[in-house]
What does this fold into?
Amino acid sequence: MIAVVGLVIGVVAGLVLQPTVPVALQPYLPIAVVAALDALFGGLRALLDGLFDDKVFLVSFLSNVVVAAFIVFLGDQLGVGSQLSTAVVVVLGIRIFSNAAAIRRHLFKA
Amino acid sequence: MTSTDDPRDARDDDPQPQEAVDADATTETRGADEPAGSGPEAVTKDASGPAMAAPGGWRRLGEALRPRLSRSQLLAGILCAALGFALVVQVQQSSSDQLSSARQEDLVRLLDEVTQRADRLDDEVARLEATRDELASGTGQAQAALELARERAQSEGILSGRLPAEGPGVEISILDPDGNLTAAQLFNVLEELRNAGAEAIELNGARLVTSSWFVDRDGVIVVDDQELASPYRWTAIGDPATISPALEIPGGAFATVRNKGARVTLLSHDLVQVTAVRAPEEPQFARPQEPRE
It folds into this structure.
């Protein structure tokens, strides 16, 4: 419940404050968001598996975000930034899908 | 389905081992999760609906959603808040301006493309404008030439008898009941009309042109191979104020006609119509002179 409330608070804060993303962060924010979504779905799945651990959730959340942003940063330095960000999004998308499938099995038994 | 899902399917089919794992992993008491359990938790979860069909998943979700100020709940809340914030910011960013989130090399490439395209379009604009000007002046000249040709064709058509005409003029009626008139008197009238500036002349339905001729044939007056009979009705387009006195000159056309015993009436009109036409004949020998440079 607190997680849902936190999500709502974050959305409202983003809508109200309407901050501008710093130019340096602009290429990494979308990737970081996708990575965070992946971590969130992973956490939800672990919760339904009964394996949820707050430390693991925190570390995986932050490391997902940082690693995804770092990969894109590295790609930018190597001149393959757009391709690498596509790769990261594809991988994270697949993970999100498989996590969502597991969650669906837990909830609907199908 | 990917192969990684298969173990999970197996576990779903057999809830018992999963319960055991859950009990090991968390501090929650698993006894309340049993469907047969009569504890207050089980009752509330069953009343919430889908928990009946899928007790494990929904129950765990419901318990997780139950507000408790535990460390993991707080942590998840904070992280979810961060995620929501970032999500909304990114959505607004990308919806407000597509270019601001693009990479530098993409922007450079985009700029190159736009510049090249603008150059090409500029060239095309210049080319099309040149074509348009050319066409405009061309059509203007052609239009003027066409107008001139049309006007000339009209005026020459009237003068040559090819076109019907109307305008101010006179109507002359010569009554010759005794048949005393000859071709010479009528030709005299025609000459006098021409001298007075008549531009289109009709006599008893025959258009008189430059090549018209009169002749006496067996006591009948013939004009352009057409036999005439009294009354001779002329229609002439021209200035009535000039034509009328010209014909009435003492010793002139009307005087000779009256001398032959015929009666003449002349009426001036603001508008008379010469409807008879004569198709011009192709010149047999004469041809247009080559323009000399």
Observations:
- Chain B has three domains: 3-66, 102-160, 164-274.
- Residues 50 and 276 of chain B are 104 Å apart (CA to CA).
- The longest strand of chain B covers residues 263-274.
